[in-house]
């Protein structure tokens, strides 16, 4: 587990931890960085340290930079199924965000996945700090795995030519760890539940066409998955590849054209997106058509940001769009066993998804499922 925290003053990049509150027999030392933005803003000292090895399904108590006044705790994810993800995009820091965070905290979960658009700092760097304080109670307690949205870019020609400056400094993801390091904080993958679920975090705002580093990495990452051991594969992306909302129409099309065939050939089970501030679930789709071996597509960009909801939909509703609703909230993906998973209550919509690895029609090279 990587712990990231910020101190105003110089402080050691040390996390002390243990399984009993108030006792920290272990420690890990990491690194410290900082950044400036538009010459006016200087971040605090951004520390991160990787703690472990850790036992699964275990609560660890920890403190940062030896600060005795603040004890945190996190619970490590289970090493087997069932496994519960919270998925929420376009979170922001509004009253709606607060209510979404309360709803998330009210029911237990193992890991949070965020498909982009975190703080809506939008160039005003202190908003990254206030966002960190807002999510700290939850983000210090469970792994938060994020990928970038357009609001993370924060590039200003000539003045701030480096995109993702704050995001990369503050939200460092494990892109250099595991069997399939990507080399970029903007896309990466990891396994959970003892390898039963493979999660792929894609980058909508860095090169994705054939021949780019991301495309090459994705091909290799998908090729490495043994579906006999990993029944579920899900991907996250910011701009949706399927979307019948008027908002952001077509913005994910180029990336879909570049990568959709790879995902289908690898039998990726579901793709979650943000960007559109609403919820929408598609049936299994490929090439714009219903396809029993394509992923289920879900837009879950309704976390609570300050731009409000996207409530204008294209009429008539496409046949492939099963459910759509513009209201704030979050999603729960509970992976139950090797053949099914489901989308838990949160009132509006729920669905069972069977693993494509368990569908013989999608795994016979000569069969109808093998196109792509
Ligand atoms: Fe967005």
UniProtKB/TrEMBL annotation:
Transmembrane segments: none annotated. It catalyses: a phosphate monoester + H2O = an alcohol + phosphate. Residues 294-340 form the Purple acid phosphatase C-terminal domain. Gene3D superfamilies: 3.60.21.10, Purple acid phosphatase-like, N-terminal. Its EC number is 3.1.3.2. InterPro entries: Calcineurin-like_PHP, Metallo-depent_PP-like, MPP_PAP, PAPs-like, PAPs_C, PAPs_N, Purple_acid_Pase-like_N. Keywords: Glycoprotein, Hydrolase, Signal. GO terms for molecular function: acid phosphatase activity; metal ion binding. It holds the Pfam family Metallophos_C. Belongs to the metallophosphoesterase superfamily. Purple acid phosphatase family. This is Purple acid phosphatase. It comes from Triticum turgidum subsp. durum (Durum wheat).
């Amino acid at each position: 587990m990587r712990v990231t925290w910020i101190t105003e003053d110089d402080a050691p990049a040390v996390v002390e931890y243990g399984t009993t509150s108030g006792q920290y027999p272990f420690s890990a030392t990491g690194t410290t960085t900082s950044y400036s933005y538009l010459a006016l803003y200087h971040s605090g000292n951004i520390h991160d340290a990787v703690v472990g090895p850790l036992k699964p399904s275990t609560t660890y108590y920890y403190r940062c930079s030896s600060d005795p006044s603040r004890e945190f705790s996190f619970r490590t994810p289970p090493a087997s199924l069932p496994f519960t993800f919270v998925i929420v995009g376009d979170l922001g820091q509004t009253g709606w965000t607060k209510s979404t965070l309360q709803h998330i905290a009210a029911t237990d979960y193992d890991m949070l996945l965020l498909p982009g658009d975190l703080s809506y700092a939008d160039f005003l760097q202190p908003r990254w700090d206030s966002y960190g304080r807002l999510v700290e109670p939850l983000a210090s307690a469970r792994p938060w795995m994020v990928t970038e949205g357009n609001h993370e870019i924060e590039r200003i020609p000539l003045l701030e030519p480096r995109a993702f400056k704050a995001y990369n400094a503050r939200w460092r993801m494990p892109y250099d760890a595991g069997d399939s390091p990507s080399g970029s904080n903007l896309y990466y993958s990891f396994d959970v539940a003892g390898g039963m679920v493979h999660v792929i975090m894609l980058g909508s705002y860095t090169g994705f066409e054939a021949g780019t580093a991301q495309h090459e990495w994705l091909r290799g990452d998908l090729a490495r998955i043994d579906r006999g051991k990993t029944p579920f594969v899900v991907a996250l992306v910011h701009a949706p590849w399927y979307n019948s909302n008027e908002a952001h129409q077509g913005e994910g099309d180029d990336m879909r054209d570049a990568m959709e065939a790879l995902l289908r050939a690898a039998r990726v089970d579901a793709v979650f997106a943000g960007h559109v501030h609403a919820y929408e679930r598609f049936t299994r789709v490929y090439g714009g058509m219903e396809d029993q071996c394509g992923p289920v597509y879900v837009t879950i960009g309704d976390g609570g940001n300050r731009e409000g909801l996207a409530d204008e939909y294209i009429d008539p509703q496409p046949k492939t769009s099963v459910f759509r609703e513009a209201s704030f909230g979050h999603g729960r993906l509970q992976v139950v066993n090797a053949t099914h998973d489901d989308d838990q209550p949160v009132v509006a919509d729920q669905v069972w998804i069977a693993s494509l690895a368990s569908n013989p029609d999608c795994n016979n090279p000569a069969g109808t499922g093998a196109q792509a």
